[in-house]
Write a structure and sequence with these properties.
Elements (H helix, E strand, L loop, with lengths): L7 H10 L3 H10 L10 E6 L2 E7 L4 E6 L6 H16 L3 E6 H6 L1 H15 L28
Parallel strand pairs: 3-4
Antiparallel strand pairs: 1-2, 2-3
C-alpha cells in the first residue's frame, strides 16, 4: 500500500464530487475495468498529493492538466510532484483538458500503450512459443493418465 496523509482523504472526496469536465469524460471510459480489465481509482491520495487517476496493477498515474498547469511555478510544482511519484516506482502520464475532450480515442490508446509496457498481455508461452502444442504438458488433476 502506498503512503498517504489521512487528512487528504476528505479533500479527495470533495474532488471526486467536483471533477472537471475532462476528468469526468475520461473517468467514464476507464472506470469499472474498461481498460484491459484493470481497476482505476480517481482522486487518489498518494504521499502529500492527490492524483487524478491511479491504476495500482500498472503502477500508473494519469493527470489531466488544465491551463493553470502551464504557469511557471505550477510547472515546477508538477515536476517535483512527478519526481516524488517516480520515487515510488510509479509512472506519470499527463494529458491536457483539450487532449481528453477533443481526442479521447488517442488518450485511451496512449493509456493502453503505457499499460502494455508494464503488464505483459495474453497467456504465458512455453519454450518455442506454442501454448496450444504444449497444453498437454500442463499439470492438471483432470488430465492424469491421458
Amino acid at each position: 500500500m502506498l503512503p498517504y496523509r489521512k487528512i487528504l482523504k476528505k479533500l479527495a472526496k470533495q474532488l471526486r464530487d467536483n471533477m472537471t469536465e475532462a476528468e469526468n469524460h475520461l473517468w467514464w471510459k476507464i472506470k469499472t475495468k474498461q481498460v484491459m480489465g484493470l481497476i482505476f481509482y480517481r482522486q487518489k491520495p498518494i504521499g502529500e498529493y492527490i492524483v487524478d487517476f491511479y491504476c495500482p496493477k500498472a503502477k500508473l498515474v494519469i493527470e489531466i492538466d488544465g491551463s493553470h498547469h502551464f504557469v511557471s511555478d505550477k510547472v515546477e510544482y508538477d515536476r517535483i510532484r512527478d519526481d516524488y511519484l517516480s520515487s515510488l516506482d510509479l509512472r506519470v502520464i499527463r494529458f491536457t483538458n483539450d487532449d481528453v475532450l477533443k481526442n479521447l480515442k488517442g488518450v485511451l490508446e496512449k493509456i493502453d500503450e503505457e499499460i502494455s509496457t508494464k503488464i505483459p498481455l495474453g497467456p504465458p508461452f512455453f519454450k518455442g512459443g506454442n501454448l496450444k502444442r504444449e497444453r498437454h504438458m500442463i499439470a492438471s488433476p483432470f488430465n492424469k493418465g491421458r
